[in-house]
Amino acid sequence: MTAFIQRKRLLLVLLSGVLLLSACSTTPKTTPTTEPPMRKYEELVDQSKTYPIQVYDPLEGFNRGVYRFNYYFDKFIFLPIVRTYEFITPDFMEKGVSNFVDNVYEFNNFTNNLLQLNIKDTGITLARFAINTTLGFGGLFDQATDMGLRRKKEDFGQTLGHYGVGNGPYLVLPILGPSNLRDTTGIVADAVAFSNLGPPAWVDDEDVTLVFNIVAAIDKRHRIPFRYHATGSPFEYDMVRLLYTSQRKILIEK
Predict the structure, then answer these.
(1) What is the pTM for the complete model shown?
(2) H-helix segments, 59-142
(3) Of 1, 135, 173, 201, which residue is the least packed, with the fewest Cβ within 10 Å?
(4) Is 179 helix (H, G, I), strand (E, B) or coil?
């Protein structure tokens, strides 16, 4: 029943996105080379009504400015680096890097499953780390998944949501992208715990930690298919805001 409810919610999210795109079909089409969308759907709808697309966003002006910055940063800095990485790195090595990064970040999954008192998932996460670190040659191979132990990804934002903390205002973070006040707090808390109690503290080498953080950032962007303004919709900001908020709700309630 829980799985059915999750699928139903996901369908509603996707349907909302489709409806939003349909509403934009009468506007002139643009290309991915143009500047990021700046139009607001509020300009075309009845302000006295509430729509499913609406998300609490009192800092919208600031957020749109950051969204614009992220577009240019992504286009001229981040994506060229990622494309260079993809060009010089064979596919099997890219997969190995992703596995290694995921294995290191099992620390965050372990701590947040433990904080949520998900004892079973905490045990699975610990087992995954032990198996992949040993049989997976330091995490380069995901042997644990092949053995039926799937990754139990959790972050502190989900932990706060698990205990009833609301989203707070929607935020767009520089480089990191869509978030909200709760999840931003979670990002900071996870980063502090990871740096002071996790693998960086075990290694205790600033150069190694710096290299890992750079590799992890490139790998993360490599795995995200989203490209700014790829939809050609002038309401892309609103779409991203809705989809992010709905996805996080589903993840917390699962």
Answers:
(1) 0.80
(2) 60-73, 79-88, 91-104, 106-115, 119-134
(3) 1
(4) strand
